[in-house]
Amino acid sequence: MDQIKISKILGKVAATELNGAKSALKKTNRTSKRLQFKEISLNKSPFPDMETLLPSLEEHEDPPLFEVGDANISEYLNEHGYVVIRNVADEEDTGKAKEFFWKFLNEQAGMDRNQPETWKEKFYQIGAPSTGIINSKGIGQSDFLWHLRLLPAVKQTFSQVWKTDDLLTSFDGANLFRPWHREGWEKYKTRGGWFHVDQGKEKRGRHCIQGMVTLFDATPATGGLCVIPGSHKEHDKLISEAPKSTTGDFILVPPSSELLQRRKILVSAPAGSLILWDSRTIHCNCPSMEMPTMPTDDMIRMVGYVCMTPQKLASLRTLKLREEAFRSNITTTHWPHYYYPSTVAAPNMTDNDLDAISEAQAALIGIDRLQRLM
Questions:
Q1: Is the backbone of residue 138 left (phi > 0), alpha (psi -120 to 50) or beta?
Q2: Which 3-state string (H, E, C) describes the chain?
Q3: Which sequence ranges are marked TM in the entry (predicted)?
Q4: CATH class for domain 3-373?
């Protein structure tokens, strides 16, 4: 998969001046359909030579855990480029989230929660098997993602980081690791080593804080998010090392970069945690570092990506496009205040009713700000 080319196409789509939000949406939908098939065609690691750079089990250390509202969250994030906040979702919240996730998997990929054999060959219908990323079939507007976005502690934490309650949410996707330790399933283990940042050379300084809510414990036995602590402070260095032809916000770290020799960690976290990281932080997801011990009749990783940024950063045009994206079940990248669609809705999805949503949901879409600006 040519990620740089994809980012370039998405950037051009977002920058194109169109007559009205609806016509813009139609054009981006056509582009998204073409991109979707490129994205989900992965069945091998796109960066096979990089897997030797993954964190080592011998050097693994659990990161510190912060409680919701801890005054030191922002300080740790600013210093290390990532932070873990536990207990944003309780057992009931995570249980409900799993039900919503399985509902999506069943409806859009035919994966039956009680029949593991149905999990094997259908992943490509919803995402990239080699990385576990799910970004198609309307996942960005699914009940699963909206359940996580509307958890009070999730917004509270982003509000604390940005020092405002007026936030937009991303319409991003999810990630899923299958039980590759099941007999004969070794080929379903994800691949790692694709270290990158999600902020390009046109954006310097802090522009975005990404996030995910994990439904299972993230441990060396499950794999999960890997980061190079403090690497957000080296963004300018990375930009200088990237190919001059690089455009967009997805930047792979060149294999020759000294940055890849620095300490890497798997971000361990208990179920129900929110993990945040600066978009300039070098990261990827990595597979299990040791043989899993959990049951083989369940997934070993389920996370939902949630990013929030201040409403004031979005243009009027972006707000209009976001409203239409919600209505039409469009999934986007992690950027809330830019409109970068990634894939379109599934054919069996019906349009969302803007009159049926809660005030909190409308605010995260940006409808309240759009109405004030119109």
A1: left
A2: CCHHHHHHHHHHHHHCCCCCHHHHHHHHHHHHHHHHHHHCCCCCCCCHHHHHHCCCHHHCCCCCEEECCCCCHHHHHHHHCEEEEECCCCHHHHHHHHHHHHHHHHHHHCCCCCCHHHHCCCHHHCEECCCCEECCCCHHHCHHHHHHHCCHHHHHHHHHHHCCCCEEECCCCEEEECCCCCCCCHHHCCCCCCCEECCCCCCCCCCCEEEEEECCCECCCCCEEEECCCHHHHHHHHHHHCCCCCCCCCEECCCCCHHHHCCCEECCECCCCEEEEECCCCEEEECCCCCCCCCCCCCCEEEEECCEEEHHHCCHHHHHHHHHHHHCCCEECCCCCCCCEEECCCCCCCCCCHHHCCHHHHHHHCHHHHHHHC
A3: none
A4: mainly beta
- pLDDT reported for residue 253: 94
pLDDT (tens digit per residue) in 35-45: 333 333 333 44
Residue 346, pLDDT score:
80
pLDDT tens digits, 275-287 = 999 999 999 999 9
The parts of the chain modelled with pLDDT lower than 50 are: 1-46, 48
Q: Is the pTM of this model over 0.85?
A: yes
Q: What is the pLDDT of residue 51?
A: 66
